[in-house]
Amino acid sequence: MAIYDSPSSIFAPWQDRLRHAAIILLVAALALSVTVALGELTLVRACAVFISIAAAAMVPWRLHDAATSREDVRGVNPVETAAVSAVVAGMPDPAVLLDRAGRVIHLNAAAAQLAPALRKNELAQFALRSPEIITALREAIASSEPRRATYLDHVPVDRWMELIITPVPVPTLFGGTDKCMLMTFHDQTPLRRVEEMRADFVANASHELRTPLAALSGFIDTLQGPAKEDARARERFLGIMHTQATRMARLIDDLLSLSRVELSAHVRPDTQIDIVPIVHQVVDGLEALASERQVEIDMDLPETPVTIAGDREELLRLFENLIENALKYGASGGRVIVSLTPGAAGGEGAQEIRIMVRDFGPGIAPEHLPRLTERFYRVDVGDSRNQGGTGLGLSLVKHILNRHRGRLLIESVPNNGATFTACFPQPKTLLPAQS
How many CB atoms lie within 10 A of CB 229? Predict the structure, then answer.
């Protein structure tokens, strides 16, 4: 139906109106003719009635429709139209449009994911409980001026967010203007992670690299001085220097890997990965180390695919660290078991996929278990360095599991080995996996 009718449509030709009213006029004429024939009505009165009916049928009733349409349009708030909703929905960052009282008018999918408690026509203050957000929102409503706020969101992982509240003038139903509030959220986590990564890398590198650098410097001075002509000392010192250089390279590699995982910890992987061939690949790659340490690796893995949402390279690093640690520090037991259990009961009734790595070595004392995933924490510093460890392996495992929304379980009894279990949430729907 047209909202505004032109004068030509209102004063349409009489022929068109007569054609539209033909059925009404025909029925009226037949009814009046029968009435006159039966003597119930005189011919003059019948003609008068017919003329009245014809006049009513010829009235341009679209005038009434057009007026009703205009009233309907005026009754809709301009801010609540589909066009405004589409603009808000198309914004890349989480965005919420509020009225001057703080009630939600529109929000996009990113905002609904960020704050699931947000509801249309409800106050945003009840859904956004951060004190920084509430303070900024109240000040913006009271002053009608832009406000900014930075806050830390702890669920499901730590995320630094910046909130920008911008007053937006909008037309009213009666031709005036009103103020709405556009809230946009910007994720500052990557910038914060980069800053932390730089600070941690400088601190850790300067601390951990000092020892091998001092050793290399000392051996170089010795080779240039007293051992310059000593072939046996030169060979021995060069071997030690190679070991120290390898340790430095691995330390830097672990630091960079840990920094990359921490940088993307707030972004959960969404690629479906079959972890069974990943475990097989890691075990095959460590066969040489197992033979060197005289350790047998027993695998208990299902033949069917087991998929999780994950990052392939990070999962390779995770399983490599767990199995390599078992081969190095549990070698005295002569055996390592790698098993996978899908559908295990986890916390709060949720199902998990669990990959267990168990060794039969000396085990770990209970007082060390809570600190094993700390950076550079070692149960035995000398043994760890002799094994080529950097003290970052389990810390990297923990951060990879955090990014995958999983958890690490550690069980150990002295003289009875240790068990490290990586737990991943069971996917609700299994999609085709990438092997």
Answer: 7
